[in-house]
Amino acid sequence: MEESKAYVASQFLAKTSSGENVNAYTLQGKGGVRMEVNNYGGKITKLFLPDRQGNLKDCILGFNDVEGYEKVDAYLGSLIGRYGNRIAFGKFTLDGKEYKLPTNNEPGGLPCCLHGGIKGWDAKVWKPIPFQEGDTVGIIFTYESADGEEGFPGAVKVKVTYTLTPDNVWRIEYEATTDKPTPINMTQHVYFNFHGEAEGTILDHDLTLFADKMTPTDAGLIPTGEITSVKGTPFDFTTPHKIGERIRENDEQLKNGKGYDHNFVLTEPSKDGAPVKAAELYEETSGRYLEVWTTEPGIQIYSGNYLGPHITGKSGVPYSENGGLAMETQHYPDSPNKPQFPSTIVRPGETYRTVTEYRFGVK
Fold it and tell me: What is the fold of 7-362?
């Protein structure tokens, strides 16, 4: 497709139910990809991707207004923190002290703290700083999380930078510091559907994961602590498979999640701070293609198992079960309670830094 002129535009969007102003930002990339984001939870609300013929289509799930995000908390397109994914029973012990967190999720009847609690960072208004450097556009989000927020220790200063490059790469850089030891595990919860928003399911998308192991879960979707091989299971995406090919197989792990909702362990994780390839996603009709690169050791694949017609998105069309795919780069779930997993504890004087890139194209 023809090159576009890169620019950043902003406008007032709405007030939250508590009266805070939310602004919307358009990031137009020179390579043709266009993103729309806002500073309520750093949400990416629209993502226009070209197909083989250069035709643009919005390929993520979301709402047109802040009210939709406040009323339906499916984390669509949100920044997730302080701790992405689940912490079992909403508690952990750090340096001999037990901390109790709100439990806002109960898969299998087992309560947990999900994605930072009742009002995680996805539901906070961030300070936005849009920028443009030549043909590179982006926005910096900053937020200060108080000591004790949602039960977590430590006052945390966090900065997240979204960059859209001329090569159609959406780069996310996470940084945080704390004044007390605390777990931090940030991610992005965008849901992709390369047919287009609210256009069927992602079950016919081809998924490849550069991950030969996974962390199996109990009925509450909490990792058991084991790290097991995916070989010979419906979780083996080391070669491309359609997401729906094996999703209904008689497999205990698939039953636990009602589909895929699992953390995969990267075969060769980053060792030098440079992102490594974690995943590829491809939809053959449109030719839309995505590579996920990250410095994180894991990636959660969530096949939108609890999406459905109770959620009506920005086009006014009810969503389908499996109507979007989340690919959340991360440390492993429940790491504060699993000392054998890579640590998520950040201490004073340390800086939490991770990078994830979504690299868009066609083939």
Answer: Beta-galactosidase; Chain A, domain 5 (2.70.98)
26 pLDDT more than 90: yes
List the domain boundaries for the chain.
7-362
Strand runs labelled E in 29-152: 34-38, 44-50, 56-58, 79-80, 86-88, 91-94, 97-100, 112-114, 127-133, 136-145
Instruction: Produce one character per residue of 78-109: b if its CB has 16 or more CB atoms within 10 Å, e if not.
Output: bbbbbbbbbbbbbbbebeeeebebbbbbebee
Q: Tell me what the mean pLDDT of segment 232-251 comes to.
A: 98
Residue 10, amino acid: S
Q: Which amino acid is at 15?
A: K
User: What is the pTM assigned to this prediction?
Assistant: 0.97
User: Rounded to the nearest 5°, which phi and psi values hold at 151?
Assistant: 90, -5
DSSP letters for 14-48: EE-TTS-EEEEEEEE-TTS-EEEEESBTT-EEEEE
Residues marked active site are found at 189, 328
